[in-house]
Design brief:
The structure is a single chain. By secondary structure, this protein is an alpha+beta fold. The chain is built from 5 helices and 12 strands. The chain has a 4-stranded antiparallel β-sheet with strand order 1-2-5-10, with no helix packed on it. A hairpin with a 2-residue loop joins β3 and β4. The longest helix has 28 residues. The radius of gyration is 29 Å and the shape is elongated. The mean pLDDT is 81.
């Protein structure tokens, strides 16, 4: 038998020795060392919890979890992420020639306002950042419609605000929520629109 590597074979074939080493290490730790180790872990846990609470305090949206599930109401400015956003009005239309909604649907016309609170420009792109969803999970993205004051997509400079109308084809019955889900919004923000 070739014994070129006796240490390797011994260490691989003896899990009992590893366990015995572990037991020896534990038995060498006395109660005072275990106490200090426990206190250290407790302090670390408290520091982590404090950090989480500070972060939550700096982002007030995190405190209103119920509103984030139910959806924020109209005329409720929400400061989240890099912006303050608000839906000021929602109206509905069956459409007009060239823009007629199907019989069981209508156009939801949403007046949306966003203010850039960051120190750099942000890009607001409603065609990909904002959508409507019904309770069945059906999603409607920005839909062409003849609007009086269309929202202009693009850059919003620091401290400036953009506002205008967005249109979506949506179901006539049931609950609808508008979701803002941009890099700048700090996460998904739901608003009740129907």
């Amino acid at each position: 038998m070739n014994n070129k590597h006796p240490k390797t074979r011994a260490s691989l074939s003896s899990p009992k020795k590893s366990y015995q080493r572990f037991q020896t290490l534990i038995s060498q730790l006395d109660t005072i060392k275990l106490f200090y180790l426990s206190v250290g872990l407790l302090v670390l846990s408290l520091l982590t919890l404090s950090g989480a609470l500070i972060v939550q305090h700096n982002y007030p949206h995190a405190l209103s979890a119920a509103a984030r599930v139910e959806g924020y109401a109209l005329n409720t400015p929400i400061s989240m992420g890099l912006v303050t956003m608000e839906i000021t009005k929602v109206s509905y239309s069956a459409g007009q020639p060239g823009f007629a909604a199907p019989a069981d649907k209508h156009y939801a016309i949403v007046d949306f306002k966003v203010k850039n609170n960051a120190d750099h420009p942000i890009n607001v792109l409603p065609s990909s950042d904002i959508y409507i969803k019904d309770t069945a999970g059906n999603v409607s993205y920005l839909t062409p419609f003849a609007l009086e004051r269309p929202f202009k997509a693009g850059a919003v400079l620091p401290g400036e605000q953009a506002q205008g109308q967005l249109s979506y084809v949506a179901t006539k019955t049931g609950e609808l929520k508008l979701y803002v889900d941009g890099i700048w919004s700090g996460g998904v923000v739901p608003f009740k629109v129907q």
